[in-house]
């Protein structure tokens, strides 16, 4: 008699079979999953992975990728959401299975437009890069083999024969310390980005790639494969979307990141100059609010401030004529000579509207740019208050904006954790009636392109929609990905 | 050599295509052993006829079909294109107009699939550094540029990229072409082809850029090996032949490539010396010393190398190489302006190659006539003798040694192919 010893609730694989199906803590997602899962699990897996990818995005903005702080925070996040990341002594099957299935579910949601695909690929690449970076060096070879990548590490003797050449070719190698590095021999055509710029040593049709550069190649391979797969998925998507149980979930998943392009001048002429003062307190993000206030008080802004605020005004709908009028009026109040304004400042305003020089129609700065570049110095008012303000000053400012003490402490905690954009989002929630976050989001998005680029509806909204579906049908569902993979219903 | 008169082309071409063009070897090349079905039949040829009539998307069933058509149409120029997904049917226009008829192909399904990797090196691209000639003219002094180009590029194709089957051909007037025919190479994508050209490129910038070569501190082995090749020719070509430091006018061009702080010193010392050789020695010494007040300037031979590379390193046309469907002049085609045959270059004797010794169509036709009249053969069976003639006639002319080079190239292709087939059948245990 055979006793499997496995409880009926768990998947029906035991011991070695489980290990064999997921031999590594990371993967290229080459094969779609083939099991049945419940609708509830389908939803939970999707939401968890979405949370993960959003963390990846936020961390990527708040920290420099690859630094210790970034790595540890990302690892904590992955562990918290119970995804796989590192080979450990515990049973790795569940987290790896979760990782596998949830990736394929999100493909369904994120294949639908160029923006969604770009976002999805970017976060998945960052996630893979992290996982690869913590993979022990001796495990790399077997991982590459299992992923059908033909990268062989060369032997010590082979390395020694070519030491000079490899060092002379690779800019990523610090010094003449080749013994410590793994070097991989790959067909030259697989290292296109390296050999075209002569950044790698070529011999007899092979590129000799040090480990640091292999990562770039692997990521490129991954991006190319995923891009193709998403295109394939999109083609077969109608078949999946026709399933009523999945349609609302997939739609909502993809709308929880809104990949709209705020560079489109859809708003031109929709704001009048006399609206600006009241809008600045009601609807501007704090960075623009403070710039506007400084402009009104000093009748002047320095270059950084003019750029950041000027482009923002363009983004919310100011026309060139309005902008010229707006800035001139204010600067003249500061006893500036009108001619001096025309000579010195109006050209730059026209330039930012794409009417001079190389005629680029510049778009408003993204949060990323504002947070990471051109920090303000004395006399500047640009930048991100959550990033660049002294916490005490920030607290005072928030108090003057009439934020509740509870809200202020939440915001300050986020700032401490360097989650600047999330802090800004909290500010938004605090200053708006958050009973209908969707409505507020939409209003905000039209008024505030900068904020809109990263505005996220809160997770509960996603959950409420699903309660309906779940109540309607609690049954086992065939996994949808086989449908999209083959283009046919089995 | 018999002088070439373009007006005689129609007659000369008739004789050339009937008696001299090496059809058997040509077919042997493009058929590639017949391993892939329809490889030859899907190959695009384009013909330029008299009065500049240009026909694309020609395709042929076999060697005899090719022969008949060439003899019928008497093309002034023959270009070779890609192997497509379907046969061409004589003109793109025809099938574009009949997309839904039987035997015609739906738009978009007719795709270029494979082609040799090709390079075109043109002497005109060196006009900024040649003193002896310009534009379409060449002479024995500047031909060394082609010699260096062939050596540098061929070394890289062979040693860095591992390409085994490289055919170098004289273009007939002012440059050389290279056909890389390895099986895997014919399948390369456009992106990889571009990447290869980028890897092989060092001279960057057009007319408005003075200094076209900038080396980083880390010198890649490709650059280092190319410089070693140039060093072998530099004295003879640049310092003696081109005399690049002959007088103020010529050395001012070199000074434009070195930092301004060095100009005064160099000008003064150049006056004191009497030859390009001496001036170059001085320049090398001055250039390798650490310049006192220039930020980020490297101390060492970089400056000297940059000048040598700008004057001698090959210039490639990326557009020729990157497109899979790009048409390139066929080997053994005739150049309508010079009359010279596009002949293969023997890599073993590349230093001795003399473009002015390459036979023209008039000279080999003349040679053939001379032999024919002296032998006074009787033709019993016209067809039989014709065939016999065709297979042996070129051997009696100055074209022979060049066909031999081509045959050696074909032998190597055959050997490789047999090797590959053996490997495959071993893997499948097919005996």
From TrEMBL, chain A:
Cofactor note: Binds 1 [4Fe-4S] cluster.
Binding of [4Fe-4S] cluster, residues: 287, 367, 384, 424
A single cellular component GO annotation: alpha DNA polymerase:primase complex
Keywords, comma-separated and alphabetical: 4Fe-4S, DNA replication, DNA-binding, Iron, Iron-sulfur, Metal-binding, Primosome
GO BP term (any one): DNA replication initiation
InterPro entries from the UniProt entry: DNA_primase_C, DNA_primase_lsu_euk, DNA_primase_lsu_euk/arc
Cofactor(s), names only, from the UniProt record: [4Fe-4S] cluster
Domain DNA primase large subunit C-terminal span(s) in chain numbering: 278-435
Lineage top rank: taxon: Eukaryota
Single GO term (MF): DNA binding
Subunit composition and interactions: Heterodimer of a catalytic subunit PRIM1 and a regulatory subunit PRIM2, also known as the DNA primase complex. Interacts via (C-terminus) with PRIM1. Component of the alpha DNA polymerase complex (also known as the alpha DNA polymerase-primase complex) consisting of four subunits: the catalytic subunit POLA1, the regulatory subunit POLA2, and the primase complex subunits PRIM1 and PRIM2 respectively. Within the complex, POLA1 directly interacts with PRIM2.
Similarity comment: family membership: Belongs to the eukaryotic-type primase large subunit family.
Job of this protein: Regulatory subunit of the DNA primase complex and component of the DNA polymerase alpha complex (also known as the alpha DNA polymerase-primase complex) which play an essential role in the initiation of DNA synthesis. The primase subunit of the polymerase alpha complex initiates DNA synthesis by oligomerising short RNA primers on both leading and lagging strands.
Protein name: DNA primase large subunit
Native source species: Equus caballus (Horse)
The organism's taxonomic lineage, starting at the top: Eukaryota, Metazoa, Chordata, Craniata, Vertebrata
UniProtKB/TrEMBL annotation, chain B:
Cofactor dependence: Mn(2+); Mg(2+)
Cellular-component GO terms for this entry: alpha DNA polymerase:primase complex
Gene3D superfamilies per the UniProt record, alphabetical: DNA primase, PRIM domain
Catalysis: reaction(s): ssDNA + n NTP = ssDNA/pppN(pN)n-1 hybrid + (n-1) diphosphate
EC supergroup of this enzyme: transferase
Keyword Zinc set for record: yes
EC number: 2.7.7.-
Keywords recorded for this protein, A-Z: DNA replication, DNA-directed RNA polymerase, Metal-binding, Nucleotidyltransferase, Primosome, Transcription, Transferase, Zinc
GO biological process, one term: DNA replication, synthesis of primer
Family: Belongs to the eukaryotic-type primase small subunit family.
Protein name: DNA primase
Source organism per UniProt: Equus caballus (Horse)
């Amino acid at each position: 008699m055979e006793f499997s010893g496995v409880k009926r609730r768990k998947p029906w694989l035991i011991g070695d079979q489980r290990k064999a199906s997921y031999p590594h803590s990371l993967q290229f997602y080459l094969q779609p999953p083939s099991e049945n899962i419940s609708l509830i699990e389908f939803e939970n897996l999707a939401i968890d992975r979405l949370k993960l990818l959003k963390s990846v995005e936020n961390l990527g903005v708040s920290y420099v990728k690859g630094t210790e702080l970034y790595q540890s925070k990302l690892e904590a996040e992955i562990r918290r959401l119970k995804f796989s990341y590192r080979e450990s002594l515990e049973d790795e099957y569940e987290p790896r299975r979760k990782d596998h299935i949830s990736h394929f579910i999100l493909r369904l949601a994120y294949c639908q437009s160029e923006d969604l695909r770009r976002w999805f690929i970017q976060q998945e690449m960052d996630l893979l890069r992290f996982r690869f970076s913590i993979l022990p060096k001796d495990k790399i070879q077997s991982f590459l083999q299992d992923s059908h990548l033909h990268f062989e590490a060369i032997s010590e003797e082979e390395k020694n024969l070519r030491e000079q050449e490899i060092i002379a070719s690779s800019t990523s190698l610090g010094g003449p310390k080749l013994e410590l590095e793994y070097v991989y021999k790959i067909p030259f055509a697989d290292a296109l980005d390296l050999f075209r710029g002569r950044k790698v040593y070529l011999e007899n049709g092979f590129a000799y790639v040090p480990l640091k550069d292999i990562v770039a190649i692997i990521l490129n391979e991954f991006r190319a494969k995923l891009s193709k797969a998403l295109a394939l998925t999109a083609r077969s998507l109608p078949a999946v979307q026709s399933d009523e149980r999945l349609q609302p979930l997939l739609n909502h998943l993809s709308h929880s990141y809104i990949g709209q392009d705020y560079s489109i001048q859809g708003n031109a002429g929709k704001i009048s100059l006399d609206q600006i003062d009241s809008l600045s307190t009601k609807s501007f993000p704090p960075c623009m609010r403070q710039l506007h206030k400084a402009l009104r008080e000093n009748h002047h802004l320095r270059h950084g401030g003019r750029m950041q605020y000027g482009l923002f005004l363009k983004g919310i709908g100011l026309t060139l004529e309005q902008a010229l009028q707006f800035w001139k009026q204010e600067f003249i109040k500061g006893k500036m000579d009108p001619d001096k304004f025309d000579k010195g400042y109006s050209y730059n305003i026209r330039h930012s509207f794409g009417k001079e020089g190389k005629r680029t129609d510049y778009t408003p700065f993204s949060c990323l740019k504002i947070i990471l570049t051109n920090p303000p110095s004395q006399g500047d008012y640009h930048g991100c208050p959550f990033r660049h303000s002294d916490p005490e000053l920030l607290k005072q400012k928030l108090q003057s904006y009439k934020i509740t003490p509870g809200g202020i402490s939440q915001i300050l905690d986020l700032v401490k954790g360097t989650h600047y954009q999330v802090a800004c989002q909290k500010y938004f929630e605090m200053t708006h009636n958050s009973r209908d976050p969707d409505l507020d989001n939409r209003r905000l998005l039209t008024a505030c392109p900068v904020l809109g680029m990263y505005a996220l509806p809160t997770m509960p909204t996603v959950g409420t929609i699903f309660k309906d579906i779940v109540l309607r049908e609690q049954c086992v569902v065939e996994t949808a990905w086989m449908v999209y993979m083959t283009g046919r219903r089995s | 050599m018999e002088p070439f008169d373009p007006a005689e082309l129609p007659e000369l071409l008739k004789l050339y295509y009937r008696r001299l063009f090496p059809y058997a070897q040509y077919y042997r090349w493009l058929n590639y052993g017949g391993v892939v079905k329809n490889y030859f039949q899907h190959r695009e040829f384009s013909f330029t006829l008299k009065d500049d009539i240009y026909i694309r998307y020609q395709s042929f069933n076999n060697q005899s079909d090719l022969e008949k058509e060439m003899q019928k149409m008497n093309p002034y120029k023959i270009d070779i294109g890609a192997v497509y997904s379907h046969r061409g049917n004589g003109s793109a226009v025809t099938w574009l107009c009949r997309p839904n008829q039987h035997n015609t192909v739906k738009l978009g399904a007719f795709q270029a699939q494979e082609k040799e990797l090709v390079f075109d090196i043109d002497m005109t691209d060196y006009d900024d550094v040649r003193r002896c000639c310009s534009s379409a003219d060449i002479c024995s002094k500047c031909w060394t540029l082609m010699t260096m180009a062939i050596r540098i590029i061929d070394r890289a194709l062979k040693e860095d990229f591992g390409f085994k089957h490289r055919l170098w051909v004289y273009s007939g007037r002012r440059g050389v072409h290279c056909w890389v025919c390895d099986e895997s190479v014919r399948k390369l994508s456009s992106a990889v082809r571009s990447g290869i050209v980028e890897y092989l490129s060092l001279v960057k910038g057009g007319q408005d850029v003075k200094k076209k070569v900038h080396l980083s501190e880390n010198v890649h082995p490709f650059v280092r090996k190319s410089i070693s090749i140039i060093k072998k020719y530099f004295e003879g070509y640049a310092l003696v032949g081109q005399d690049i430091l002959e007088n103020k006018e010529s050395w001012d061009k070199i000074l434009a490539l070195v930092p301004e702080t060095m100009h005064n010193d160099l000008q003064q010392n150049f006056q004191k010396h009497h030859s390009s050789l001496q001036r170059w020695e001085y320049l090398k010494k001055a250039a390798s010393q650490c310049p006192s007040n220039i930020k980020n300037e490297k101390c060492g031979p970089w400056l000297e190398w940059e000048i040598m590379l700008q004057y001698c390193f090959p210039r490639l046309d990326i557009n020729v190489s990157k497109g899979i469907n790009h048409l390139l002049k066929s080997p053994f085609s005739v150049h309508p302006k010079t009359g010279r045959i596009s002949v293969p270059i023997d890599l073993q004797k590349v230093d001795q190659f003399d473009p002015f010794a390459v036979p023209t169509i008039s000279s080999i036709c003349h040679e053939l006539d001379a032999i024919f009249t002296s032998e006074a053969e009787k033709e019993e069976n016209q067809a039989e003798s014709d065939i016999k003639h065709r297979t042996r006639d070129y051997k009696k002319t100055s074209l022979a040694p060049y066909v031999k080079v081509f045959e050696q190239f074909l032998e190597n292709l055959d050997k490789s192919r047999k090797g590959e087939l053996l490997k495959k059948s071993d893997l499948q245990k097919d005996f």
